Amino acid sequence: MDGVLEEKAPALRGNMGTLGLFFSVMAFNAPLVVVIGVIPFMIAFGNGIGTPILFVIGGLIVAAFATGFLRMSDVIQRPGAFYAFVTAGLGKKIGLGSGLAMLLAYFCVCAGYLPFGGVIFGTLVTNTFHGPDLPWYVWAFVLWLIVAVLGYLRVDFSAKVTAVVLCGELIVVFIYNAVIFARGGAEGLSAAPFSPSNWFDGSLSIGLLLASGMFGGYEVTVLFRDEVRNPEKTIPRATYGLIACAVVIYVTTTWLFINALGVDDAASLVVADPTGAMDSTFVTFGSHFLFDAASMLVITSALAVIVCAHNVGARYLFNLSADGVFPRSLSGVHPRHGSPYVASMVMSAAALALNAAVVVLHIDEMAFYAALLGVAALTGITVQFLTAVAVPAYLKRTGNHKDHVMKSIVLPLAAAVGFGTVMVLSILNFHILTGGSQTMSNILLAFVYGFFAFGFVLALALRRWRPQVYQRIGRQ
């Protein structure tokens, strides 16, 4: 085995440009799902009408982090992203724990969104198109099959599919915002949601937690390094474009949604019926056709999330197996598509098996979805915090910070403070994220941080019994 490890590491291939990479990552953020399913919840249970400013704060934290993240990618020019960067800055033991944790996070998104997509798919078919009333897992299997095929093929093809889906979402959101703006909302457009007097309405902690979680997936820009054209230009453009686009969409849509309900009545209306409040604005200011279009695109939006999570998770599995942590057979590269097809098939099989267990054990599918998304959110926030600490630690230790102090030290540490705050809030309010009891939340918290601990212990074992594999941790 050790002799095999000395061979040249397998490398993926692709030809994505800036727009292809941007669409792949932006699709993971599922802007239409955020608009319909998250923004009303944030207003109802988070920061009330002061919610728009939280997206600005979340965007600033992510932008500060991205600056150091991209600086690190210039210095460490290899795939692996958080896994590679945490290893370089904080050591192989914490690095392996972070790599395994991010594999868990993306797998949870991939597997968790299948029942969510199956439920909304079935509802649309039955209620809108008057089709057969079939169990959620039938429609979830259809989504799974599409994802399995796309994950096997060249990533460029997945990028094109998600680009079409994302364009549809953005068109619907643009029309929704345009008609509300043109009609002046319910009582004329008001800037009250941006007033400092409303910044601390309701629960600031829940609002900030949810807002920060809406800027996910930008790690993919570096993880796909071997599969893009001219990574030195493509990766920064796609990353900053993603953050800027997300901030503009979320802030604008939240502000206009509040104005569509009326600033004085928005909070009470959303608390009374979060879903109904958003649906009513689509019909009142748009039309039933716009509402139906949005309903259909929520399904394709969920599909795009699963595709992206599947692709990223497969590449984490590929990188870990290429390092020898997992069997090297999992790092197979398809001779034609240049994709991690073996890792992709393993991801597909695992997601199918887990959802089959949900069906067989009669677990509530939406409770399962909420729990897995809660696990993914907390895991991702924790690894981002560790990465924000690892970046300045590595750049300072190697002397690569001298001409870039702001990018290398100041902004990453500012992001670490932001992510650290969000991480603490996540832990304290985890029962709200998962929708379960405190006991269930404690079990899931133990599971999340137990995964980090497992990676730490595994690294210790590799250092003792398989030192050459240990040296490869973090794509070293």
Notes on the structure:
Its main location: membrane. With 476 residues, the protein is mainly alpha-helical. It has one domain (2-472): Amino acid/polyamine transporter I, CATH 1.20.1740. 76% of the residues lie in helices and 0% in strands. The model is unreliable at 1-7 (pLDDT under 50).
The pLDDT mean sits at 84
Model regions low in confidence, pLDDT < 50 over at least 5 residues: 1-7
Largest sheet: none
Beta-strand content: under 5%
Oligomer: single chain
Principal-axis shape equals globular
Secondary structure category:
mainly alpha
CATH architecture title:
Up-down Bundle
Query: What Rg, in angstroms, do the CA atoms define?
Result: 22 Å
Total strands: 0
- Helix count? 20
Give, in order, the helices and strands.
Answer: HHHHHHHHHHHHHHHHHHHH
CATH topology: Amino acid/polyamine transporter I
Q: What distance separates the N and C termini?
A: 17 Å
Binned, the helix content reads over 70%
**What do we call the CATH homologous superfamily?**
Amino acid/polyamine transporter I
What is the highest CATH level, the class? Mainly Alpha
